[in-house]
Every structure is written in structure tokens, then in C-alpha cells.
Fold:
Amino acid sequence: KEPKKEAPLPKDLYSAENYSNIEKKIQTCTLEEIEAYAVANNPLYLAEKQNIGMARGDLITAALYRNPVLSYQQQFIPLNITESATNYGPTLGSNGAGFQTFRQNVPGGIGGPPEIAPSVSWEYDFGIIRNQKIKVATQGFQAQIAQFADFDRLFRLRLRQNYWLHLYITELIDFQKEFYENYKDLLELNKFRADKGDIAVLEYDRLQLERIRIEKDYKDADILRAQIAKELRFLIGIAPSNEILNFKGNLKYFTTEELGLNLNNFNIEDRPDLQALKSKSVQNKLTIDLKKKEGYSSYINFGGEVRLKGNEQYAGVFASVPLKLFDRNQGEIL
Structure:
């Protein structure tokens, strides 16, 4: 699927000198421009988007081989010899090689020259564990993409719903304010009529109670608009404020075709939340298979070494395979 094309933003929308007036600039933007700004500045949206990169990193890590190990060891390192040669005469002989070595301060003593042994080893995976890890990470990556698609869908839907609801409540408040002002004028006229005796005092009291109800509805709508404005500021990614948001948009009616909805061709399998659940289910099954395979020997450790001792030189190779007779990854949680 082709990615959604975001509406172009005003060039000076992100400039530092206009940061203090960012809210006023947003109020002059269209819904598409507000949506584009929200997906670029909302912390929760950006954090959810970063999870895709983390899942991709897990996939890259799962495909890596083990690093080779370079070892170095040295043996027969001579220590400082302070004993006299006569102490070693009976053992080594006055003309022995060892006595001559000590006497001439030749490194090595009776053990000869130092032995140097560099070696390289590598744990090679037969492909059983590595391939299974790649499958698990691939499903996790696909599940994360589907989860982000579902989060993106719900985020944009929530933003648009609050935007249109804010416009509706704003128009409702304007209507209720005008109606409340007219009702107060009508109440003053009925008070004059009650004083003249044209209407009963009880009827005037009923009108007073009606005024209280209308005033309550007007104030409740004002409080609701403040709550919606707070939610909108959070979704857009701007600082909270007590100022009233005044968007330039107007309430409109959109058909299902204009909204891109075709219920006749709707396929529930295309829902991103359902796709995320399916990928997550497959990932859990593959993880169980991975833990089972890790209970058996799946790699071989092989390498080679070179030993240098004076004029003598040796080379050798080795290989080892772990036998997991009693090791079944006990205590590990999937």
C-alpha cells in the first residue's frame, strides 16, 4: 500500500521565533495541516513509531552470527632467580644445561624458553537456532508494523473526532449564548407583566426555573469545550493553555464515498489490529519452537592454535559440541 500523503505545512510553523505563537498559527490551519503537525510532534505517536525501528533492530540482531574469539596465552615465563649455582649443582649438574641457563641469565630456566600460543575459536551455528530466531524476529517486526498502523488509525480518528466535536460545541455555545440573552430579555418582560398582574406570580417563577436550566446547559457546554480543547492540545502536541481554541473550520457533511468507506467491499481481514494479533500469535508459536530447539545441541565450537617455543613450532585444531544432557533452559520464561 502506498503511504498516505501528508498535507504540506506552513514553512514557518516550526521556527523557534514563532514557537510562542504556535497555537495561534495552528488555529489558522486546516484539519489536514493540523493532522500533519500532530503526527510530527505528539510524543506518544513518535514513541510508537520508534518501536518499529527497535523491532527492525531485533531482526538484524537475530540474523547475526557469533563473533570469533581470539585467545593468547604464554607459558614458562621465568621468574627472578636469586639462589646460587651451588644449590643446584647436585640436581642439575655443574655442567648441566639448566645450570648454564641460570648462569647466563637465559630466559626460561630449566623449562626452556617461553611458550607462546595464539588461537582462534568460533561457535558456528548449524542454522537451526539462527533461522528460528530470524523467523521469530520477522513476525515480531510485522506485528509491530501492524500495531503502529492500528495506532496511527486510532490516533488520526481520535484527533478528527475531537476537532469536529470542538467545532460542534463551539457553534452550540454560540447558539445557547444568543438564546440565553434573548430569554433574559423575555424574562424581564414577563416580570413587568407579573407586576401588572397580567400573569400569575407562579408562572413567573416557572420561567425563572427555566432560565436556570438554560444557563446550566450553556455553562455545561462551555466546560465540555474546555475539556475537548485540552484533549486536542494533547493530541496535537502543544502546551496546555486556558485560552479558547478558535479553528477556522466549519461543520460539514461528508458522504461515505468522500470518506473513502465502501461497506460493500469491506474485508475484516484488512483491519490492522486483527493483522497485528495474527502476527503476534504466530510469533508466540515460533518462540515456543525456538525454546524447544535451544534445548538441544545446535552449534559446534571449533578453531585452531599455534604454539611457539624457541625453535619449536606446533599447530593444532580442535572442535567441541556441548552435550545438553541435563540442560533444558530450566527457569527461563518465554
Observations:
- The chain has eight helices and four strands.
- The helical segments are 22-27, 31-41, 43-62, 89-92, 97-103, 128-196, 201-236, 272-293.
- The radius of gyration is 41 Å.
